[in-house]
Task: inverse folding
């Protein structure tokens, strides 16, 4: 009997948990996870560049491109703001910080962030080749967008360049397929050492915080994304979650939205019927600016910190958390642990001491799993919504599958 990829990933995930609990020294399998991550990172830059150029140029209409971009950004902003409020709500419901205390001297320094204007300026690359070499995703997206727009504007003259990127994108899809064959081994190598490292002794004191983030993430995904894909995308929520589940599980294991991008594109096109035009445009953008799971985490962790320190947040401070949390999550890089860095900015915005972050840091890797999975699922929901409104959703393929 040959299992499909989804079943193989699930089996590997369960076996990793069991092995992490019962097998001493299971950390030796960590190189399998490291290899899988390196293979994923190996294709991120060329995949984003080629697919985004093709996605933009394939529209053939600059007006349509602007319309798609507007819909995508609005969807991301609205769902992210809702995510922060969901996080705050579950923070109050679970009150994870009550009964916990921090040790003296355990402080985390606030991270300096660029101003809003400088952040916008940093999106524009001074050297596109350097951006490709360093893997600056926002600058790569900017570069690819302009290449795609220029190809569209030039028409026939730029066809050879378009065909090059189109073929290059197909090559990257083929390589992605090869890499996905080893995904079960990579997930086993990522999960088993984490379970062995943390165990139940570390998890129990902060179980309420973990539960608050986990349940808030699940509720946000099930409620918000089900509503949007059903009402706007006219797609069955069950079909949606089943189609994107392999990517969500890889995101859960890798804690990287950007790292999961190749699988997200593959699942969204093949399982959800989203056209290449939309998936190549919406998903790379979402992996960079759409962080609903991170926004939920910021809401819960902020309340957790306030409760641990004995602070009562005012209504004005809560509004500031929503605003800053939404903006901070949009500015969060799609890499492991980035949400924790942004949490310092949110706490600083409401003048909350940073000592409680020492507690959050202890389980941040576990929280990162849940929030990254939601980030990726949210990207896919945006792709479905935008594709449906642009007539780029393959309904026949959905009926046949």
Result:
């Amino acid at each position: 009997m040959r299992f499909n990829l989804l079943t193989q990933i699930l089996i590997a995930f369960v076996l990793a948990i069991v092995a992490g609990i019962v097998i001493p020294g299971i950390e030796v399998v960590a190189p399998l996870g490291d290899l899988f991550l390196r293979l994923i990172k190996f294709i991120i830059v060329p995949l984003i560049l080629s697919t985004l150029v093709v996605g933009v140029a394939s529209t053939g209409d600059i007006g349509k491109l602007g319309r798609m971009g507007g819909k995508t950004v609005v969807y991301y902003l609205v769902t992210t703001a809702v995510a922060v409020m969901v996080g705050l709500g579950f923070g109050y419901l679970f009150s994870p910080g009550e009964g916990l205390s921090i040790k003296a001297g355990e402080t985390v320094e606030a991270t300096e962030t660029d101003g809003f204007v400088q952040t916008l300026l940093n999106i524009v690359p001074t050297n596109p080749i350097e951006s490709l070499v360093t893997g600056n995703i926002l600058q790569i997206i900017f570069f690819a967008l302009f290449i795609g727009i220029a190809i569209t504007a030039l028409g026939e003259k730029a066809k050879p360049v378009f065909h090059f990127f189109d073929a290059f994108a197909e090559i990257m899809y083929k390589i992605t397929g090869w890499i996905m064959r080893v995904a079960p081994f990579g997930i086993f190598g990522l999960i088993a050492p984490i379970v062995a490292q943390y165990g139940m002794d570390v998890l129990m004191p902060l179980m309420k915080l973990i539960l608050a983030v986990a349940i808030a993430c699940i509720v946000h995904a099930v409620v918000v994304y089900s509503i949007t894909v059903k009402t706007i995308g006219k797609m069955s929520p069950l079909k949606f979650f089943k189609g994107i589940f392999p990517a969500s599980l890889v995101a859960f294991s890798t804690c990287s939205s950007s790292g999961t991008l190749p699988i997200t594109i593959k699942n969204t096109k093949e399982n959800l019927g989203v056209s290449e035009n939309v998936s190549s445009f919406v998903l790379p953008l979402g992996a960079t600016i759409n962080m609903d799971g991170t926004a939920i985490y910021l809401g819960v962790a902020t309340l957790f910190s306030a409760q641990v320190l004995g602070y009562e947040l005012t209504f004005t401070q809560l509004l500031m958390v929503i605003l800053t949390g939404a903006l901070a999550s949009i500015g969060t890089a799609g890499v492991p642990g980035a949400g924790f860095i942004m949490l310092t900015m949110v706490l600083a915005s409401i003048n909350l001491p940073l000592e409680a972050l020492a507690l959050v840091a202890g389980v941040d890797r576990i929280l990162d799993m849940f929030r990254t999975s939601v980030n990726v699922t949210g990207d896919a929901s945006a792709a479905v919504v935008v594709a449906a409104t642009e007539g780029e959703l393959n309904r026949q393929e959905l009926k046949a599958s």
Summary: The longest helix spans residues 62-94. The chain has 17 helices and no strands. Residues 103-113 have pLDDT under 50 and may be disordered.
